[in-house]
Amino acid sequence: MEDLFGQDWDITPAGGATGAAYFAQHEEQRLFLKRNSSPFLAVLSAEGIVPKLIWTKRLENGDVITAQQWMNGRELKSVDMDDNRVAKLLNKIHRSEPLLGMLKRLGKTPLQPETLLHIINEELDAEVRRLPIVAAALKFLGDEISHIEYGEMVVCHCDVNHNNWLLAENNQLYLIDWDGAMIGDPAIDLGMLLYSYIPREDWEGWLERYGLQLTDNLKLRMKWYVVVQALTSIQWHKNQNRFSEMDNWIDFLKKAL
């Protein structure tokens, strides 16, 4: 990475699970760098959903480095998720034809409920399955799978945690970390956001700002996808020996069911 910039630039790791992100600074110039980002980043930048893409360069070893505008700002806090701008940006993402078209060109196909249920049944180990709440969750998923068909597939971020929302100093809101993006039912994003951050009595008002009515069908679809994501998180944290986080997800699942 240093060879790309020369010795005048200060380059430091930006953290993250992949270790592929960096901050670069030279005097007043600041950039956010990432190794081997998806071509999807260019469309996200053009749509104003992530900070502006400045350039893309290919290294001799074949790696591709992208440089984005470094935005001073802060991550959203849990209490900020009721902000009108969150609902409006998520609506913009779900309605974006350029985003959907790019994911399709990258070979993504719609994520079907049957596929998710199959994955869950494959990845849950025997110890997790013996938990009564997990057994109840699996029964719920199987019983309701025929009732959650939805025709309008959109680009879903799939990790709308408050830490992935960046509010810049100019009050521009961004949704970052798109590595897990999929094509699927918008209830995938809506469910986790509402269940995680918004009191149930406020769901109807939040969804009105997003642009949807809170129907019984939407309630069922959101619950179904939330249960899937909770089960996945329980198993993932167990695999990582993060038993405190695993217990938190078990409690979350109990409340969701």
From TrEMBL:
Pfam families: APH. One of its GO terms (molecular function) is transferase activity. The keyword Nuclease does not apply. Keywords: Transferase. It comes from the Bacteria. InterPro entries: Aminoglycoside_PTrfase (IPR002575), CcrZ_PhaseVar_Mediator (IPR052077), Kinase-like_dom_sf (IPR011009). Residues 14-215 form the Aminoglycoside phosphotransferase domain. This is Phosphotransferase. It comes from Mesobacillus campisalis.
